[in-house]
User: What shape does this take?
Amino acid sequence: MSRRTVRREAPAKINVFLRVLAAREDGYHDLESLVVPTSLADVITVRDAEALRVEVHGASELTGEVPAGGLNLALVAALALGDACPGAGGAEIVVEKRIPVAAGLGGGSADAAATILALNELWGCGVDEATLAELCERIGSDVPAMLVGGPVLMSGRGELVAPARVEPFHWVLVHFDFGVRSPDAYRWWDEAGGGTGPDPSALLDAAAGGDAEALGPLLFNDLEGPVFARHPVVSEAKEWLLSAGALGAVMSGSGSSVVGLARDETHARAIAGSLPGSIVVSAPPA
Ligand code: C5P
Assistant: This one.
């Protein structure tokens, strides 16, 4: 008998803006961010099995090493759902890795959200959306946003998500072979005195209206300054994108990736052509 299989895409995200509002007592920071899924995605496949097991395929120079043990967020997600699901059994979870790791693109969080959704189906848990969102919040601050499957305006420490309208845009993604840990980026923000960017209303209007020319100059990320000070090459990537003709460029999440906004796909390919190793993505997927 063939084993039942459920397969789901786990899209990388970019933060079109990221505004850090304040440090909190619990060690997190209140923030506001427009989080948009991209056409670059891992693929999660789950199958019936006796025990719970995670395999990571395709980890490479591009993606970096993915932990296969306890730190793997797909495994953490499976264990969290298992606790909430009476019908939970074993499962073989295969992660086909395409998203660079620790790159500010939410790869681990995307894997976690997709694994929860896939196993909820495979195990017939029938766990409702609100409970899935609570499980995701416990796994990581970015995971609730990834559960939604479309652009969201994220707030709180990341757990408050509201669907947002964003037209598809083409972006050029520059990534590095090193990551930035988010606790470090937020601590550096504290140490730098914690600057907060502007009200994002105009940016949200430009994103909803598909106006790339207006959106480009409005992109911002409050973690850029603190990360650029430690990793000048990330700041240089932003400069490369702008001098190659991007309408605007911004670091995603806590870095190290930077995305540049293009007018359209042809423009994105022209920019990427001048930056070896960069990738064209659409966000949200066209
Ligand atoms: O929730 P997650 O495990 O992804 O967070 C990792 C770390 O990033 C936190 O322990 C905290 O240091 C920092 N962080 C934060 N404020 C947020 C999200 C993350 O300070 N809103």
About this structure: The chain has two domains: 5-163, 169-283. The mean pLDDT is 95. The CA atoms of residues 167 and 210 lie 5 Å apart. DSSP finds ten helices and eleven strands in the chain.
